[in-house]
Amino acid sequence: NGPSHNGEVEESYIAISLAASEGTRADGDDGYLDGTEIERKVTSAHFFFFKDGVAFPVNVTDGAVTAPGAGANHLAATLNPGPDTGSAPNVSDIKNVVLLLKSYKGEYPNQIVAVLNWSPNPGTAYDLADLEAAVNLHGPTVDSEYFVMSNSVYLAGNNVMKATPLTVDKIHKTEVEANADPVQIYVERVAAKVTVTTANGETKFPLGDSVKVDGVDTDVYAHLLGWELHLENTQSYLLKKIDASWTDASLGFSWNNSPYYRCYWATSLPAPSGSAESFKMY
Length: 282
Known about the structure:
Elements: E1 9-20, E2 45-51, E3 54-55, E4 74-77, E5 80-81, E6 93-104, E7 111-116, H1 128-132, E8 134-136, E9 149-151, E10 154-156, E11 159-161, E12 164-165, H2 175-179, E13 183-189, E14 204-213, E15 216-223, E16 227-229, E17 235-237, H3 248-251, E18 256-257, E19 262-263, E20 279-281
Parallel strand pairs: 1-13
Antiparallel strand pairs: 1-6, 2-3, 2-4, 2-7, 5-6, 7-9, 7-12, 8-17, 9-13, 10-11, 14-15, 16-20, 18-19
């Protein structure tokens, strides 16, 4: 029961202010690692549009799209440097861009997702569920030396926020109006950065048992010589998968931070058969 467009196409403008997460916990916990400059680099940016999760075409020409959800629903864009992040504890970089939408008159998307350093198939429509599905990090035409980033996923109340809401008042008739009223999108790397350390630098740990050596009770220690990755998974979900039923109590730590548009836990793809551990030690 949407408005009748009668095949008439109109142009609209949306300005985007893209905020990249610092990569660390916003509470200053130094157990979380910031990304280096190269790990935050952006070589390509694509923006996907949806209406209630269904692909919404934003580059139609008159008569080219006849059904809802048909036609490509993504736009490529070159990002421009944004203002200094100042003292924002959860943002490392800001980029700006204005997007030109071509859609049927009176019909607009209501969700947007940004994906960086990963390229969709040209001409393909992606529902939100398609972006949620497992996607090889080395996408169809990705610049593989850069980290893939996408919308920051977190829990707001009982709602899993995986797309940025897009209200009609953010869709403008001129580029000047759009620039004065940008949509804020938060993005993060889909791969985690990990460093392994030992408590206080110690590599020798008592096992809590003892053995008899020449009749004397002698403590037994485990001496850690080193560690390495046990496996590397070449795939990841393009948008983080989280569960609204998770709680701090069930996970054992504070996992969600909605004021900073972040969470610190997600479901990963199943590991290859027989390799349940992340690290091996020797």
